[in-house]
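Subject: design request, 78 residues
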């Protein structure tokens, strides 16, 4: 992921922020304008997290097609 801007948080940071946004919204204590801003930020974070998960899933598929194909799970052939 070369060229990643410093403004883009890591997956873990984005997920933690998303969880905080959801908690703030679920509390019911945010005024309408802040709720709308929080919803928008949450949607952006969700998009970032989904994109990173899709990328990771694609990387796993590539590895499974090659290097990890012979890996035995659950102690099989250990």
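Subject: RE: design request

Done. Sequence follows.
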């Amino acid at each position: 992921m070369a060229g990643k801007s410093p403004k883009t948080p890591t997956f873990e940071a984005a997920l933690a922020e998303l969880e905080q946004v959801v908690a703030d919204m679920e509390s019911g204590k945010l005024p309408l304008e802040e709720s709308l801003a929080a919803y928008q930020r949450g949607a952006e974070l969700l998009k970032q997290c989904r994109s990173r998960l899709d990328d990771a899933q694609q990387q796993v598929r590539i590895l499974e097609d090659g290097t990890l194909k012979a890996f035995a799970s659950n102690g099989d052939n250990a």
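Residues 70 and 76 are 11 Å apart (CA to CA).
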